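Reproducibility note. Readers wishing to regenerate the assembly model reported in the main text can use the exact inputs given here. Chain order matters: entities are listed in the order in which they were concatenated for prediction.
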Amino acid sequence: MPTRISLIQGPNLNLLGSREPDFYGREAFDEVNRKIKQRAQELGLEVRILQSNHEGEIVDAIQDARNWADAIIINPAALTHYSYAVRDALTAVRLPAIEVHLSNVHAREEFRRHSVVSPVVVGQIVGFGSLGYLLALEAAQKVVDTSHK
Amino acid sequence: MPTRISLIQGPNLNLLGSREPDFYGREAFDEVNRKIKQRAQELGLEVRILQSNHEGEIVDAIQDARNWADAIIINPAALTHYSYAVRDALTAVRLPAIEVHLSNVHAREEFRRHSVVSPVVVGQIVGFGSLGYLLALEAAQKVVDTSHK
Amino acid sequence: MPTRISLIQGPNLNLLGSREPDFYGREAFDEVNRKIKQRAQELGLEVRILQSNHEGEIVDAIQDARNWADAIIINPAALTHYSYAVRDALTAVRLPAIEVHLSNVHAREEFRRHSVVSPVVVGQIVGFGSLGYLLALEAAQKVVDTSHK
Amino acid sequence: MPTRISLIQGPNLNLLGSREPDFYGREAFDEVNRKIKQRAQELGLEVRILQSNHEGEIVDAIQDARNWADAIIINPAALTHYSYAVRDALTAVRLPAIEVHLSNVHAREEFRRHSVVSPVVVGQIVGFGSLGYLLALEAAQKVVDTSHK
Amino acid sequence: MPTRISLIQGPNLNLLGSREPDFYGREAFDEVNRKIKQRAQELGLEVRILQSNHEGEIVDAIQDARNWADAIIINPAALTHYSYAVRDALTAVRLPAIEVHLSNVHAREEFRRHSVVSPVVVGQIVGFGSLGYLLALEAAQKVVDTSHK
Amino acid sequence: MPTRISLIQGPNLNLLGSREPDFYGREAFDEVNRKIKQRAQELGLEVRILQSNHEGEIVDAIQDARNWADAIIINPAALTHYSYAVRDALTAVRLPAIEVHLSNVHAREEFRRHSVVSPVVVGQIVGFGSLGYLLALEAAQKVVDTSHK
Amino acid sequence: MPTRISLIQGPNLNLLGSREPDFYGREAFDEVNRKIKQRAQELGLEVRILQSNHEGEIVDAIQDARNWADAIIINPAALTHYSYAVRDALTAVRLPAIEVHLSNVHAREEFRRHSVVSPVVVGQIVGFGSLGYLLALEAAQKVVDTSHK
Amino acid sequence: MPTRISLIQGPNLNLLGSREPDFYGREAFDEVNRKIKQRAQELGLEVRILQSNHEGEIVDAIQDARNWADAIIINPAALTHYSYAVRDALTAVRLPAIEVHLSNVHAREEFRRHSVVSPVVVGQIVGFGSLGYLLALEAAQKVVDTSHK
Amino acid sequence: MPTRISLIQGPNLNLLGSREPDFYGREAFDEVNRKIKQRAQELGLEVRILQSNHEGEIVDAIQDARNWADAIIINPAALTHYSYAVRDALTAVRLPAIEVHLSNVHAREEFRRHSVVSPVVVGQIVGFGSLGYLLALEAAQKVVDTSHK
Amino acid sequence: MPTRISLIQGPNLNLLGSREPDFYGREAFDEVNRKIKQRAQELGLEVRILQSNHEGEIVDAIQDARNWADAIIINPAALTHYSYAVRDALTAVRLPAIEVHLSNVHAREEFRRHSVVSPVVVGQIVGFGSLGYLLALEAAQKVVDTSHK
Amino acid sequence: MPTRISLIQGPNLNLLGSREPDFYGREAFDEVNRKIKQRAQELGLEVRILQSNHEGEIVDAIQDARNWADAIIINPAALTHYSYAVRDALTAVRLPAIEVHLSNVHAREEFRRHSVVSPVVVGQIVGFGSLGYLLALEAAQKVVDTSHK
Amino acid sequence: MPTRISLIQGPNLNLLGSREPDFYGREAFDEVNRKIKQRAQELGLEVRILQSNHEGEIVDAIQDARNWADAIIINPAALTHYSYAVRDALTAVRLPAIEVHLSNVHAREEFRRHSVVSPVVVGQIVGFGSLGYLLALEAAQKVVDTSHK
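Running the prediction on these inputs yields the following structure tokens for the assembly.
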């Protein structure tokens, strides 16, 4: 059975391509998702993608992952900086999770340097644009494989 | 007419029983709610229970309590630490409210020690697991009785 | 074609009139909205009004404004103090936005003095009750006119 | 053998009834103690009550509890905010302890929000006046029963 | 008798037009004052305008307003951030005051986000260039009218 | 009946004369007390003096003042900086209190600049050595006289 | 030759009597100055009184004191909290200085608790209204006498 | 010509395998370097690896990279948290750099959450053990390719 | 005449042996005191040992040391972190003092890293269990010998 | 035409020579100004010198420099630490400015280490007494020459 | 086989005797080392001494200790306050380590009170000059003996 | 004998000319050193120049200066912000030292505003590019001359 990944994207990421291209690149949201699915296929992974502007839906999605996924890849976007609800959900479901940010959050406003989510995930991939999701798929596979041994 | 209590539970509390049992105990969410209803009945209270992972639904529920309840018992879970929207709702409806936390939030991560809700409620019951809700029912009854005198 | 304004109101503002009248005044929510529409008409503006207790709906509304409005007037209410999601949405849509607060947030609790939204809007109008929305309409018109030159 | 509770009250609590009735209520100290004893009797608990204005006597009393009590209920009053000696005593005796405050300390001066004792007790009951002690008796009984299983 | 407004402008505002036009616009100081007077006339207000680089003269002007004005409109400029003398003067004269800033102080250096004056005025209008004064005239009229009822 | 003053001195003040004479002067403790009594007599005041190294005894003394004194003069010495128990006692007894420090605490270590007691007393006299007690007697007389009118 | 005192009063103190009487009392400025002069005469002191809303004039006055006065009594009012210029002037003239505040600054806004002047004066008299100036005259006499020995 | 990568490892990383295996894994340093070289070969990259316990040698190595490498992969280890010299070197050489940490630094001591290097690199890969270096190779290739377009 | 040492132990140290053995070791309080006396005898020192849970008694004991001891060895236990009364007593008696802590306070809770006493003692010996007292005896002898030369 | 320099000195610098000679040296104010003029002459510079204790006059002088000077040399003295009015004036006139301090402000009180002016000047010369002004003349000449190229 | 100790001394300690004798004493570096060796011999310990001004060499020396020593005694000197590289090395080698400081770092500049090394060593000996090394030898012997049991 | 100056330059300064020319100018490192030597010759000074990326070598160089130089000119570059080892070396050698920075560190990142070295040098020259070294030579000569008087 293939490793299954729940890939969750937070508020405003649906605007990718039109939003601050200096930080987020010019690739459109759909194009990024298409690439994610393609790479997943190449790696033999099954991936489900969700984007929402609603914190509650993100929490629901993390909880739902318990019933299906082996690992979570999450870009909490703005929620990174204050959503202890997302953090608690990640802790509660006890799945390995990987935090991705498209832009280098450490080279922007001070508040973006603080993530309430980082202490409860396996690791972070930050600053590589949409490539970050692809690397995260590879990392997730490795993390799941290792923990299954 | 019996005193009516709106009991509101925040994000991830639906996972009770499976989530971090060292902090939250092993009782399942449904079992806890059953106990709450039973104790309410013993005390001659009417209780309505809501759980949501969505801050907006919690705010809506607090607002709705104006039209029905005499008091609110709330465990805002992760929202405790940042949701000024929940705080403002509690202030706006002008019902006595009691804040409950299952685990002793002061013996965990530093951020859990700060509640934005505490200054606008009547009091807190913290650290006694599901017993906290039962004690809160008793306290709510007393608070409503006193304010009706 | 008239200038079009999306006017967005955050959590608990629907309780206007009954909520802490010392801070927010005694005018009811509907009355305020009626006044806004009347003044918009006088100024030759088209205005759409949304109120929500759900952060996600506010983010959605800001994103939707891209397809219709020339400017945004927003009273983020409690979200002012923590919702980087609202902030990011305002940045992403690249429309001029004006932040309004009914009460003088600088004369209340310390936490109300900090707005995560202020750095990404054009300006703020604070402390004048519902008059603030009317002044904001006038300012929005001016801002749109200027940027169209 | 009945569960035995050592109930310890800190500085100035002897003035109850005459001291700032808006915060502490109008019940006199002796009346509160009488109620505590009555409720203890109803619950089948044995309770010893001590009040002192001397930190050293409070520390001594906590240490003495080792030889007699199954649990401690403590309202450290002003000592809450700086007495690491009280904290260390509570840790040293390894009895379950419950922290009670009569007023909602989170709705008063900033310094009252910080308790050096909270991280080493089982839980807190805050803001319910003398009812807090009665709820604490019930909680203590439950805590002792649970730990004896 | 028309409502009378004392409009006070702080240090360096006399350089308007030549000073950092990105923040303060290209309109000259005299042009702005002319517009203020014209709008005052339209609104049936009487307005006196003072600009000074001297904190002491600003304090004097606020004190003098007691004897003449119904309200104060003040742009304290750099004094905003440290002049408790200006703050105390505003409190002492017990006239409604409105704080105006030409640029969005929240989108500039950190220190500009803190105003020692804001807690003692009615409200703020920030970021709309010279339009801010015109909106403030309208707001002042409303505030005076309301308080006279 | 003469105005009655309870004059309370905190830890280590009994060493006056031998202790750090640069800060505290060379007058011995007994000499200072003698001067206090003499000035009290001149002013027609009755004064009782207590010194203790025990916080609990200071709290007891403040409580006892309720039954005898019209005002309290207190030099809490080191307790100034952390004893919320002393602060609470002063608030609880509702007598006017005056805080005295022999040395200028603002010209010494940083921690001496913060007094937890200052917000609950009438005023402070700081830095004038034993003269401070004598000025405080005069001030206490005036404060009692004024409040009796 | 009598001891000569330069008594300097900062911004807004000229409004005494009309300004916030809860904090500053109802006595008018002139009445306070008359009392000061009378008490000075009783004590055999020569006193010159200056009040200014201008920091620069206060600095000038402190500098001028070098040529005439034996000691300075200063109520820097709002300048207390930020005027390092006043502080440096006090240090530069090397005269003993006494800081007076009419209200208990420690029982008001947080910013009033910090004085940049306190570390360079002999002592403070705080919270006793106009009596503070009279006590300061007595203290100044003593300080000058002592330093002349 | 193949893309050339300078891979630099900071203090104590030579102890890999024996050092705190819970954080850093059980793979030996040489084994990790072997894997890096193998993956580089697979990706058609040329890689040079340096480890040093000396900050100065790390700075030298970064400077040398100017003359040879297309990109830098750096795990500054403990230097991450204070070496502005390493940061300045990375800025000075104007090569794209990628920061790697083996353990999830956000789940350990507080000081490990702050990196002085992060603001001047392209991105970070954190928490995936030696896999992090392999992912970084892939990312570096992509970054170099993109910037060459 | 032998060098005389006053060895003072703060709150809860009497529980040694039963209290948190991971931090404080398993040796009983009496056993530790016996070892101290034995080593003192070996070194030709006279030692008096006091333990108290009362801050006031510790202050008294430090003051009494003036009349007998050549040096003080003090383990202030919890008082380390807030007792400026103990600090002032140590300064006042002008005897060389050595601060001892049984556990490594820097490897425990953050608050234990701050000692208000450290700046006024000669030195600290921290983390070596009861051996710390023995080393302190040797150090005290040396310090006294040196200062007598 | 010679390069023209406006040299501005802040509060209390007129007391040079008599004021704290350990920090400021023993040279009198007039002597320093004489040296400045002489060096200016040697360098072929025209210099105008102003000293004022009034912040407003300093701001005026900076503004006036626009009409005459090529560069500003300023020792803001105490204003360094809080006068955003001086800072804004320096920014507004867009002349190169050099900040001079006679004493090493980093080796004195903590507050002297923070300059609100430093971020808007070209550079600082600190700690060399009156020589600092002479070096600043040389630097100013160089800065003006460079910017004219 | 004798217990083997690696004694490591940080930057500038080679200047002992000539450097700030008030803090560090007048004994020369060589003399101190001679005493260390003599006491080691008396205690039956083997000791190797290293001093370096290079952080990298100190890290190397700590790593080398793995192959030879039973314990480390380290005076990291200035590195104490920032060298996480030294800290990580101490953790990595898993040898018991003792931190020594010659002067009482808590009685000097504020920055000297913070040690990044303290949390990972067994204990500290601070303020006793060169005697500290001798006491540390004794402590090291005890620590090694205890851990070998 | 000519005054001898040891001029020490910290990490990355060897890249001058190619590194961030907006901050550091376009002059090459060798050119700057040539100018330094030329100006030294003009002033009759002997100068030795060292640049190193290794903190340890900088500390060694400062120590070596004792045996040759009359003064030190140091640009610690990145070490400015954390190297207490450099600071201690400067204090230990007791030579007058002058701190130079090429760019205006106060107009860049916040961390560059804090120098751990500034409190122990004579003064700073900041922001004038390579001219700063030349001015420092002049200042050093003056400082040495003055201290030799």
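We highlight two features of this model. Helices of chain H lie at 21-24, 29-43, 55-65, 84-93, 131-148. The domain at 4-147 of chain H is CATH 3.40.50.9100 (Rossmann fold).
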